[in-house]
Amino acid sequence: MDIESFREYCLSKKGVTEGLPFGPETLVLKLMGKMFALAALDESPLRVNLKCDPDKAILLRDEYPEHILPGYHMNKQHWNTLVLDGHLPNSKTLNLIDHSYDLVKNGLTKKLQQELTAL
């Protein structure tokens, strides 16, 4: 998966915005103001950080030790770094984007969840 496919898929989700708050080399995608995905624009191969359930994160790192790593510059219990060099199936990447989005969505306040529903 390339950066444009990653970006477009994330932005297709309801309530998602993008920005560069950490500088031009890190794309940050947020759901209702809460981060759920980051992409290192200056890395080759592309590396992205996604939020993940802690138990699932450990299983994924064991299953894909060279392609799913503890989250770089993030809380390593709750974030994974995916190395998108073509070895990780796109379906797995899309599934993990959905998982990250859902974790953040489920953690939103009731007010933000209502605003999201109204969009």
Fold and architecture overview:
The chain has a 6-stranded antiparallel β-sheet with strand order 1-2-3-4-6-5, with helices on one face. With 119 residues, it is an alpha+beta fold. A hairpin with a 5-residue loop joins strand 3 (34-40) and strand 4 (46-51). Helices cover 39% and strands 27% of the residues. The protein has one domain: Aspartate Aminotransferase, domain 1.
Summarize this structure briefly.
By secondary structure, the chain is α+β, with helices and mostly antiparallel strands. It has helices spanning 3-11, 54-63, 90-107, 110-118, and strands at residues 16-19, 26-31, 34-40, 46-51, 68-70, 79-84.
Q: DSSP helix count?
A: 4
Q: What share of residues are in beta strands? A: 25-35%
CATH architecture descriptor text: Alpha-Beta Complex
Sheet bearing the most strands, described?
6 strands, antiparallel
- The domain tally reads 1
* Shape call: globular
Radius of gyration: 14 Å
Q: According to CATH, what is the topology?
A: Aspartate Aminotransferase, domain 1
Physical arrangement of strands within the biggest beta sheet: 1-2-3-4-6-5
Instruction: Give the helices and strands as they follow along the chain.
Output: HEEEEHEEHH
Keywords: DNA-binding
Pfam families: YjbR
GO molecular function, one term: DNA binding
Protein name: MmcQ/YjbR family DNA-binding protein
